[in-house]
Amino acid sequence: MNNENSPESNQEDGIYNAPWEKSFDRILTPFEEFIHRQTTSGLLLMVMAVIALVLANGPHAETYSNVIHTYISIGVGDWALKMTLQHWVNDGLMVLFFFVVGLELKREFLVGELANPRNATMPIAAAIGGMVVPALIYFALNPSGDAALGWGVPMATDIAFAVGALALLASRVPKALITFLVALAIVDDLGAVMVIAFFYTDSIALLPLMTAGALFGLLLVLNLIGIRLTLPYFIVAVFLWYALLQSGVHATIAGILGAMSVPAVPKYNPERFSEHVGELMSRFDASYQHGRSIMTNESLRGIVQTLNNGVHAVEAPLQRLEHIWHLPVAYLVIPIFALVNAGIPMELSTLGDTLSNPVMMGVSLGLVVGKFVGITGFSWVVLKLGIARLPKDTRFTQIAGVSLLAGIGFTMSIFVAQLGFGEREDLLLMAKTGILLASVLAGLMGYVWLYLVSKPADSKSE
User: Fold this and answer.
1) CATH no. for residue 434?
2) Residue 340 belongs to some domain of the structure
3) SS3 at position 75
4) Angstrom distance (rounded) from CA 269 to CA 229
5) Is residue 20 situated within a structural domain?
């Protein structure tokens, strides 16, 4: 009797299935894959945030603080770059996060929901409202001094947490509502990037900034002359990151600029690819020898490799890089960011003072109340003006529920807080506390709201 894990027992009509492999043998659309990863990333973020809180408030709090503030240096000869572990994560590793954000932005504006002006109007208006109103609420409570620098903190929505929470209701809400939230969050990310670039930038060093501009120009030239290999883009982008780091503009903007230069047009159109595959499959069939492994058939191996090259040529580099990098960013970069930045020391004896602190209140009210009022209000206005329409099979009460979920700020909000209050640990602590409190409240309230106003039948298209 063959062992159940032997190759012979797993052969089915010429297909070898390794143990557990069938569970992964399912074709997902790019959007389904995106939602799946955002859901898993959101859960992983939650776990890492809890671990960071435990470490910051347990017996190893001092060790945790020492580790994230440990200086790490890389250098060659007389040149060296020295930053704390936290800065390496925030200024270096997060470039990959912004790179993926940039790829998503470019794709969305080229071929996604935001490519159609009629469809794009509502999520764009909602995102603007969801940025302006929270900032105004925060600024009303913190109109002056160092605390006023945090006005950008409640503007951001965490796409992983928010989409993950909504995906838990996938059987009750229409798919178009998830698309709306994704589009809203992507526009929100664009707004956050612009805020970081223009308002959270230190003094500008002109020569490094001009160098960065020249390097970005070189990236665009690589695109225009048809370079599709990713290595040249990567090398130039590394120098671009360093130039921005030295210029005073936040270095993570290099991720966005790098993404904007990635080619979005494939080499082959679908018709040419189909012809190419047909020709290769005819040669494949002619070269096939029954009972002979492909490992010993040089002709078959060459054809398969050519097929592989053709598959890459029919897929735009932008699409391929988004697919490749989304996984490590969602499952590694963002969780590490959470682990390094979400550790907030909490003192029960000062809880009353914390909850009444203007920075904490500004952030939490901005995210929970500001997002709800801004997104719902601006959406209502554009609908009444007749310049936008509700997503398919969606009710306005569900838009209101999504506006609550958009109050989950976390990743981008913490990132902006680090920029605004980097020199004021006390204000940074209040901002992070407000972000965590608001994210929990917004997530719970949004989930309950949508659960109550939605029914399983809502997700079924006619």
Assistant:
1) 1.20.1530.10
2) yes
3) strand
4) 18
5) no
Q: Is 84 helix (H, G, I), strand (E, B) or coil?
A: strand
Predicted model pTM: 0.72
Residues 6 or more apart whose Cβ sits within 8 Å of residue 228: 263, 267, 317
**Measured distance CA(98)–CA(84) in Å, rounded:** 20
| Position 308 in a domain | no
H or E stretch covering 277: helix 270-287
Task: Kindly state the average pLDDT of the residues 320-337.
Answer: 85
**Domain that residue 403 falls in:** 29-201+250-265+316-459
Q: What is the pLDDT of residues 407-457, one digit of tens each?
A: 988 888 888 898 888 778 889 989 999 998 999 899 899 999 999 998 765
Considering its fold, how many domains does the chain have in total?
1
Residue 371 lies in a domain: yes
Distance CA 181, CA 166 (A): 9
The rounded distance, in Å, linking the Cα atoms of 353 and 82 is 37
* CA neighbor of 363 nearest in space, from 300, 314, 303, 409: 409
Alpha-carbon span 304 to 59, nearest angstrom:
57
Tokens 């010993």 sit at which residue?
296
Residue with tokens 């200024």: 91
Residue 322: name the closest of 42, 44, 31, 117 by CA: 31
pLDDT of residue 151: 93
Rounded-to-5 percentages of helix, strand, coil across the chain: 75, 5, 25
Residue 421 · residue 150 · CB < 8 Å:
yes
Q: Is the pLDDT of residue 27 over 80?
A: no
Contact 398, 453 (CB under 8 A): yes
**pLDDT interval class at 351 (50, 70, 90):** low
Matching residue, tokens 């697919």: 323
State how far the Cα of 130 lies from the Cα of 6, in Å rounded to an integer: 56
Tokens at 300, concatenated: 């078959």
* 286 or 90, greater pLDDT: 90
DSSP codes joined into one string, 279-335: HHHHHHHHH--TT--GGG-HHHHHHHHHHHHHHHHHS-HHHHHHHHHHHHIIIIIHH
Query: How many angstroms separate the Cα of 251 from the Cα of each of 15, 81, 403, 422?
Result: 48, 14, 30, 15
Beta pairing, strands 71-76 & 79-84: antiparallel
SS3 call for 83: strand
Partners of 16 in beta bridges? 11
